[in-house]
Amino acid sequence: GALHAQTAEVLHWWTSGSEQAALAEVRKVFEASGGEWVDTPIAGGGNARAAAVNRMLGGDPAAVFQFSIGQQLRELADQGLLANVDKVASEENWDQKLPPLIVKAAKYDGDYIAAPINIHGENWMFYNKAALEKAGVDVPKSWNEFVVAAQKLKDAGIIPIGLGGQPWQERIMFNSVLLGVAGREFYAKLYSTLDDDLLDSDTMRKVFETFAALKPFVDEGSPGRNWNEATSMVIKGDAAFQFMGDWAKGEIIAAGIEPGTTVGCAFAPAIDTAYIMTVDAFAFSAMDGEEATPAQAKMAHVMLEPDVQIAFNKKKGSIPARLDVPADSFDSCAQTAIKTLQDEKTHLVSTGLFGVPSAVSGAIDDSISNFWNSTDMSPAEGQAQFHQAISNAK
Amino acid sequence: MRYNRLALYGLLGIAAIMILSPVFIMISTSLKSMDEIRNGSIFTLPADPGFAAWGKAWFGDCAKTLGDTCGGLSSSFMTSVKIVIPALFLSVGLGAITGYALAAWKMKGANVMFAALLVGMFIPPQVTLYPLIIMIRELGIFGTIPGLILVHVIWGVAFTTMMFRNFFKTVPEDLLKAARIDGAGFWPLFWHVMLPLSLPILGVAMILQFTYIWNDFLLGLTFGGRAGQPMTVALNNLVGSQFGEKEYNVDMAATMLTALPTLAVYLLSGRMFVRGIAAGAVKG
Amino acid sequence: MPDPAQDVLHYSATPQDAHQKGRRRWRPQWTARMALIPAMAITIFCFYGFIIWTFVISLTRSRLLPVYKFTGFDQYGRLFANERWWTAMQNLAIHGFLFIGGCIVFGYLLAILIDRGVKAEGLFRTVFMLPLSMSFIVTGVIWQWVMNPGLGLQEAVRALGWAGFEFNWIVRPDRSIYTLAIAGIWQQVGLCMALFLAGLRNIDPNIWKAARVDGIPVWRVYLHIITPMMRTVFFTVFILMSAIVMKAFDLVVALTGGGPGFSSDLPARFVVDHILNRQELGLGAAGAFVLLCTVIAVIAPYIYFELQKERSGRGH
Amino acid sequence: MNGVELRNVTKAYAGLTVMENINLQIADGDFLVLLGPSGCGKSTLLNMIAGLEPTTGGSIHINGRDVTGLEPDERDIAMVFQSYALYPTMSVRRNIGFGLKMRGMAKGEIEKRVAEVGELLQITPLLDRKPSQLSGGQQQRVAIGRALVREPSVFLFDEPLSNLDAKLRADMRIELKRLHERLGRTIVYVTHDQIEAMTLATKVVVLDKGSIQQVDTPENVYRRPANRFVASFVGAPTMNFIDGKLTHDGDDIVFDSGSGCLPLINVPAEIRDLIGRPMTLGARPEHMVFDDAGISSRVLLAEPTGPDQYVRLAVAGSELTARSGPEQIFKSGSDARILVDGARMTLFDPQSGQALLGS
Amino acid sequence: MNGVELRNVTKAYAGLTVMENINLQIADGDFLVLLGPSGCGKSTLLNMIAGLEPTTGGSIHINGRDVTGLEPDERDIAMVFQSYALYPTMSVRRNIGFGLKMRGMAKGEIEKRVAEVGELLQITPLLDRKPSQLSGGQQQRVAIGRALVREPSVFLFDEPLSNLDAKLRADMRIELKRLHERLGRTIVYVTHDQIEAMTLATKVVVLDKGSIQQVDTPENVYRRPANRFVASFVGAPTMNFIDGKLTHDGDDIVFDSGSGCLPLINVPAEIRDLIGRPMTLGARPEHMVFDDAGISSRVLLAEPTGPDQYVRLAVAGSELTARSGPEQIFKSGSDARILVDGARMTLFDPQSGQALLGS
Ligand SMILES: Nc1ncnc2c1ncn2[C@@H]1O[C@H](COP(=O)(O)OP(=O)(O)OP(=O)(O)O)[C@@H](O)[C@H]1O
Ligand SMILES: Nc1ncnc2c1ncn2[C@@H]1O[C@H](COP(=O)(O)OP(=O)(O)OP(=O)(O)O)[C@@H](O)[C@H]1O
Ligand SMILES: [Mg+2]
Ligand SMILES: [Mg+2]
């Protein structure tokens, strides 16, 4: 911890090429303004989060560390392990510039304990245009249409859904179905209240039925597959659709394709428009007090600077956490997202990292994955199990 | 008789192929280009073998990183060595001394203590990370190599003690008596008589501990801080990221590079290993 | 009759003992006790201290960090209501049985084959022990490849022309647990082989001669005579492999990630996942404590056996 | 008093008493042999003298000093083990010098003493070998050297020769005896081999089940055993025992076993007092005499050993062994006449087993 | 021919010949003892007869059948090992019956035979114990039972008694001898203990360094050794050897060692032919006679063994051992007069070591 006042160690899990390139944009500006950046990458979100916490407990914290905002971060704050960046936030009026849901999540006791750097959308549907043409189907607008289209694709020898069979990917698809079948109000209410009636409702049954109906449309190799392999299947045309966050665009760009051209992006079929957000953020260890050190404050400042927001998010494939930066230099998918988010009603939270307590989040992942992978569980049983898991975790 | 022999070698050959083929796949994949990997079967030999992936794994790819390090394994190799060597000697040494004290010096409760210690072999280290973190912090060595070494000693001592105690139990009692009559106290008996005797088992304990410590990821990640990140953490950074294109040839090369020291140890010491096990672990 | 005082006098007057000046010397037994202190401290503070700590935490509602707000046995209630936990426990039984059984059977068979007096013994031994040098993570990664239906063995065999060949256990919820055993056995079979081989080499060669004179077929000698004699080795192998099963974590993560679904989860991974990723420290601790109790149930007979063996060994 | 003294020594293992109230005085310069069957407590006793086993009660004195609570190396003793117990990883030289080194003796002095001992035991050419490169007899010599070099006042030997083959054992026996005569130190020697006890000891202690049966010179232990246990344990082939009583047969005294009368010769006068009372007659094979005046017996088996021949006979309802010279031919099933040398026989009380007539 | 026959048997290990051109005929019903020092090839020879070691050359015949290439169980033999080699996890009953079971014998028949053998060897009460619960002697008996039950025509024993203590060894020896007399089967028995060879054998084969030194009855091996090796190997204490030559001393013939003349009595007539030529005189301790007509010698050491006493003497520049009765007292350093029984001595050629005068 005895580093120079302008030095900040940054612990993060961004180790892949596009992530590192994006983070380099932040670093460039931070260093240009006199800061010194000490980089500590640790692959894997779980590993990195654990390392950050453990080092804090061990008395050797990293000054700035990537973390998900929400319940867990507040717990760290509770133990006095975090510094706040209120000074920067109020100077720059974050309250106004960030989406209210994010503001709420980034604050503990009225203090900003994290700097959100971007917004990823999770209810995206990527598709291979050539594959759709070959099977003679259009981009489906509802889940019923999707099932019909999927059948046609299957008949044409194309894998309808390129799915990475890992719990979090299965959950992303499930949440898209949930949003698409039950609507955004239901989604918001369900995950904010975890209400028993909603969990038991017929709507929910229908969600499970729809979700179950997708099972025949994935290939045998799905379980355990990484998301980028699934994306690559869509790029190559082996698979037609993938339900994935907008980070998939990075993979598409890496393959030399402009998102929205041969590989299209659209929101997953839904009865109304909404954007399931997930946010990357950085938190600040309490180094000598409750207030952020100059280096930490500088980091917070840099991360939310409009130019950095644009440069970073273009590389990362996400959209700026600040909705007031100009959108015109982004790709068409991102522009759609930014436009959508201007309407606050479309703001929904992912259950992955900050929407619900992590215990519930885990329970959701477990039970959805279990349902998806079981061969003999009926939708009713799946629903019951989902309900049970959530109540158990609350 | 002849056919028996044939069947014998046949079976051994099949077993050897089954054991070796995954290693073969790794090596051959590491020598292929990414195009070949995408389009071919994992069992085919590389069409145009090259060591590009190995170079990338060792030196990293500076274009892709933030520039502090290039992300290769080379930077953390020495860290691993600095961790493994003292941790190896301390954990084996402590196990040897403890095993010796338990086996050679008739003490009340020695068996109870040994039984109690054995439980340590079965505790998943992940489960008790928090109290260990606090303990190491209170000792003021969290995030340092000495801290990490201590943790390895803690998690290694049950196993090494078991090996040595079981071996020393087979040493004839007369030998200990003779040494006591010669006036050899605790340490002289250990240094001059028991330790030289235990060379075979020492070899086995060293090899196994070396493998465990070298291959450790979790403890290095948790207790190494910034300075003490071993090679396995670097390996994880290289191959473990969820996002971005996967370079399987580099992954495999990196994996092989990480495994190379332990692999070498086994290749060089195979005979000693079996003999050591025969001398100690089994006799019981 | 010399009185005690005289004894001391005489004692210090003996030339060899002059330096002791009648005082009792520092006993080596005391040094022996001192030498046990580090290990004893580790045992008490780390092993048992940590077990107790784990138990205490399991009685709280700790999530990300330990907090000492006690909730009784609530976490155990949650644990036992958790389907994933039961799947993991059931998997532990299946995996334990297959992995330990497989290591014992294959390790023993390989040891027997080698013990039949093959020429390139050293080569085979080294080959069988090679996987031991790989970490569980590496093992998992390799086997994930080999067993991946689209990339690995299945595809390769099909490419050779056997179109109907199926080997897709890793993606089948009802089979994925078996893949763990395959990879685990691959890695550990060498150690078991070495242990068994050492045991076979310790057998009195006259037993073999006696059996040959008796005209007992080789396989029967192994079955009826040698195998029962190797009881201790079997036990050692069993214990070592049990320790590995109980701690199995890395392999699951790297091979199946616990999937599909949580069909190949194991308790150690359940616990670690809940503590490190899910921020369910209390629940994880409860799981850990239950796991530890299971461990103790398994090794208690071992400890008993150890002590028993030595007591009965005394008469000789 | 110099030498070794045991006063009321008791030993119990986990509550089980294996040795009770042993009192024994070993004079300075004695060669005392502890003789007894396996498990009778010989090693335990020796280990207690050495300080390798704590005593449960009583005290042990060496050269007048109470050593009961002392460490082995403080007792001025040295010990030689049946298994040799050489340090396998050290050269012979280091093996012998190790005890001196532990006492902090100067290197040069150690060298000198080791060389002397090597000379004495004729192992100088072996000094740089490892124990595993030595034969059994050579190993035993090194073990003795290790004890000698320390120049202790008491040597303890625990069955030092029983791992050697017969020939070597005979040679080493003689060497040990000479060594004792030369050094004049006290030796306590454990064995279950009675030949060793007879040939080596100045004094034999016969032990059984943790208690002392007889303490005497080897000759007396052989010729005048204190009880039936000693009589049967010492001597091979073992003494013949016949139950019966002494009766008159005319002028002569014979031994009547109930199913036949065994003639006696050279009967000592005092035996007449015992006539008529039930007793057990003990006669060693060499004290059975083939003589035409003897009782008729049937030859069961003849065992020629080379210099002698042992003949198993069925006589008066018992099986007896007699020794004869190698020349005479005994065919199985043939007849032989046998009598007992009454001057050398021993008579025992059949109940207590104690020898009759103060031995 | 019944019995066992070895024709030109040769054995080499990895090119190193340890046994060359062994020819041996063992008659049906013989108790043949292979006697020799450690490493001379006794076990190797026995293992070749058993079929446990392949021969390098030559052939082996059992009951007239060439068994050279056959498996051990096809040779109609049974074997007993020094280490007993009992199957440790089986009960005594199963140990004995296991070989029969492997031959597919019916259960009832096995039971019967095991019971018979148990009866014969008096181990019936032990039948349900494990080997580890038996004493050494009991284990050896079970090992013999395992061989007996198969009723083979040849029994092979490899030092079966050498792990037992002296007393037990003597008892088992007698039992084995009786067993042989009772069953009348051929026995080939390996030992390095000459007492065992003397007492058990009908024929002794003395081996040294892989070659046969003498094949003869035990008596002849003891009394008329073929060469110096046999003479010195058989007999304990060992035979005395003195180099010198026979000369006249007046009417008598004496043995002149260069530093003194040893008187001889009972000299056989044919010896006169050898007068003057250099030779080695061999005399066993019991053939040295204490007699006033003897040469003066100095007593070095007296070893009383109980029935006898061995006296080491310095005489005529050599050290000799003589046997006497236990009564006579020999003090170290005192003087004794000794002569040699010329009728029992053996004379050897000093170069070749062969006995002179057709033995
Ligand atoms: N550590 C021990 N615990 C319990 N009993 C013991 C122990 N050591 C010896 N004994 C018992 O004490 C008795 C005497 O044993 P000791 O070893 O002194 O006999 P020994 O006369 O030396 O026999 P051997 O001739 O077989 O060496 C035996 O009955 C033995 O079982
Ligand atoms: N497997 C082997 N390889 C090489 N040499 C051997 C082997 N077995 C025995 N020998 C050699 O053959 C010779 C005879 O050995 P053998 O075991 O027959 O001796 P022995 O007379 O039985 O000795 P002992 O009395 O010690 O049992 C020895 O010199 C020995 O070193
Ligand atoms: Mg003893
Ligand atoms: Mg042999």
Automatic annotation (TrEMBL), chain B:
It is a multi-pass membrane protein. Residues 77-269 form the ABC transmembrane type-1 domain. It comes from the Bacteria. The keyword Transmembrane applies. GO terms for biological process: transmembrane transport. GO terms for cellular component: plasma membrane. InterPro entries: MetI-like, MetI-like_sf. The keyword Transmembrane applies. PANTHER family: ABC TRANSPORTER PERMEASE PROTEIN, GLUCOSE IMPORT SYSTEM PERMEASE PROTEIN GLCU. This is Carbohydrate ABC transporter permease. It comes from Thalassospira povalilytica.
From TrEMBL, chain C:
The chain crosses the membrane at residues 34-56, 92-114, 126-146, 177-200, 221-245, 281-305. The keyword Flavoprotein does not apply. It is found in: Cell membrane. Residues 89-304 form the ABC transmembrane type-1 domain. Keywords: Cell membrane, Membrane, Transmembrane, Transmembrane helix, Transport. InterPro entries: ABC_transporter_permease, MetI-like, MetI-like_sf. It is a multi-pass membrane protein. This is Sugar ABC transporter permease.
UniProtKB/TrEMBL annotation, chains D, E:
This is Sugar ABC transporter. Belongs to the ABC transporter superfamily. InterPro entries: AAA+_ATPase, ABC_transporter-like_ATP-bd, ABC_transporter-like_CS, ABC_transpr_MalK-like, ABC_transpr_MalK/UgpC-like, Mo/tungstate-bd_C_term_dom, NA-bd_OB-fold, OB_MalK-like. PROSITE patterns: ABC_TRANSPORTER_1 (PS00211), ABC_TRANSPORTER_2 (PS50893). Pfam families: ABC_tran (PF00005), OB_MalK (PF17912). CDD domains: ABC_MalK_N. The keyword Transmembrane does not apply. It comes from Thalassospira povalilytica. Keywords: ATP-binding, Nucleotide-binding, Transport. SUPFAM superfamilies: MOP-like, P-loop containing nucleoside triphosphate hydrolases. Residues 4-234 form the ABC transporter domain.
